[in-house]
Amino acid sequence: MKTVDEINQKIVEGSANVVTAIEMKEIVQELGPEKAAKEVDVVTTGTFGAMCSSGVFFNFGHSDPPIKMQKVWLNDVEAYTGVAAVDAYLGVTQLSETLGMEYGGGHVIEDLLRGKEVELRATAYGTDCYPRKEIVTEISLEDVNQAIMVNPRNAYQRYRAATNSSERILKTYMGTLLPDFGNVTYAGVGELSPMNNDPEYRTIGVGTRIFLGGAKGYVTGEGTQHAPPFGTLMVQGNLKEMSAEYMRAATFPGYGTTLFVGMGIPIPILDAEMAKATAVRDEDIETVIIDFGVPRRDRPVIRKVTYAELKSGKVEINGEEVRVSPLSSYYMARKIAEELKRMIERGEFLLSMPVERIPAREVFRPMRQKEVKVVKSVMSAPAITVTPDTSITDASKTLIEKGINHLPVVDSSGKLVGIVTSWDIAKAVAGGRSGRVGEIMTRKVITASPDEPVEVAARKMESKRISALPVVDAKGRVIGIVSSEDLSKLLAR
């Protein structure tokens, strides 16, 4: 049994044995946990990935005459000003008001780290003590009094992998997901990740000193959405001491901006149990692949999977081999673990035990909300359909008699094969065509599922500029149709 004080003394003396989490796996396998605990003093870990719940508190100093900022923008990215007069919090996912998803809070932070100046623009309502109502100036990281990175949720212990069962490409915070289970993406670095090497959080808690963005930082508590074994950390550090090498802004196409954050945590090997914990391998770390093709909070689990399987670059889904790609950088995570090892060996980084442990057991609760309206509650059912062999004339009569504008086209088993609209029919009649519906129908049809929230259906109609969606079951059979008129009636209630 060792203490952190004893380990720190060895660090000061230059005699501490420090290894990375990758090296520790082999040591424990060779010596066993008991001997490894006597041999090793510190195990360094690392992770590098998109950490959207991140940002920086700035104090800009007072202008002359003074201003109490009501709104403030840095390079056209708005920061939160509901604190003191010249304090603001810039979140990494906040988008530029001029460039949109091409530039956001994460990019402002990286620009500042790289020594660039950014435009500060602020407005105010003016008071007796803060009479100024607007200001525009240029600032650099050196100009601000404080730039304190405070990240509410970082360093996920493990993360759910993603795939897509739908027929269309999805742009998500898990990257671009291809249709029909075309790919799988995952986040986290598995056996090198800090919290996986101390799953009971014996040495990771409030006050633990960490490597954050190339500088010393601290754990300030459990992160938001902390739900072990999907644990998270709230952390902070001084942005002025950090390096752009370990902070990279990025954009997920169709989703938004983020910041890749580099973090490492030293694990003191206090006893054999800690040595055993740091011997964890990717084969031991499980997560699940969930289906983003279902636009609900509780997305279906496709299958369980280990990080070893994910890192192999392929997994099996429904008997088919599916490509897998990471969203986190194992290369950078390993680099961070090695750099932290060197800092400790040089006596530049001492360990600190938490003053308070974070919960090892916690349940994440969903948002409390009113009943979620789903498509089946507003759709017209049964749907009036035709077949590809239906004549254009008969389809035209059906539209007129039923007072509708859309006819799903189905095969003999009721499966959707296309759709024809009153506009399609009108064009055909005007052009003197008298053939079959199959000749004029749209074959690539945007659909809805019966349990899909109406908000999702409305977004599909808006983004695709269409006015109705056939509703299909899991086998692709048409069970109804929902129109923009149906949704309008719902909103009018």
UniProtKB/TrEMBL annotation:
Keywords: CBS domain. Residues 379-435, 441-493 form the CBS domain. It comes from the Archaea. InterPro entries: CBS_dom (IPR000644), CBS_dom_sf (IPR046342), Diverse_CBS-Domain (IPR051257), HcyBio (IPR002708), MA1821-like (IPR016426). Pfam families: CBS, HcyBio. This is Homocysteine biosynthesis protein.
